[in-house]
Amino acid sequence: MTTASRRGPALRGKGLGHRTTAPIGSFVVRRARLVLVAAMLAVVGFGVLGVGAFGKLKTGGFQDPGAGSTTAQTLTDQRFGGSVGVVLLVHAEAGTVDDAPARAAGAEAASRLTAVPGVANVVSYWQTRNPGRV
Fold first, then answer.
1. The pTM is what?
2. CB 70 within 8 A of CB 64
3. Centroid of chain to Cα 5
4. Residues facing 9 on adjacent strands
5. pLDDT in tens, 77-112
């Protein structure tokens, strides 16, 4: 970066960077049309090479077959039709979800789900009392 100081403007063209980039810069200036044609040919060439790439690319990214998340997704797809999260709905036949029978049924369902092998996280309304979960 060049800056001005009390002693005058900073000297340009000195230092290691100038020795490295000066030959490249002077070549580009002297042979501007050649550089432009070479760049255009490179763009066209890479475009031709890249046309076949769209047929070989797949959506969804890479999934490591040994990762726990891949195993969980496979099990979810097989057992629940591919839904990301499984929602269990407890309906109160009489009263509200805060009444004792519904609370007991919800707590029982949550504890049974927690005991299932492979289930990592169970959150219920009766644990959080979050009205958004009702």
1. 0.35
2. yes
3. 47
4. 4
5. 887 776 666 676 767 777 887 888 888 888 888 888
**Could you give the C-alpha distances from 21 to 25, 29, 31, 35, 39, in angstroms and in order?**
6, 12, 15, 16, 19
Interstrand relation of 4-5 and 8-9 (parallel, antiparallel or unpaired): antiparallel
Residue 26 structure tokens: 């002077």
Q: How far is CA 9 from CA 17, 21, 35, 43, 68, in A?
A: 18, 21, 33, 41, 61
**42-61 residue pLDDT tens:** 999 999 988 888 888 777 77
Q: Name the burial class of residue 96, with classes exposed (0-12), middle (13-18) and buried (19+) by CB atoms within 10 angstroms of its CB.
A: exposed
Q: Which pair of tokens denotes residue 79?
A: 């057992």
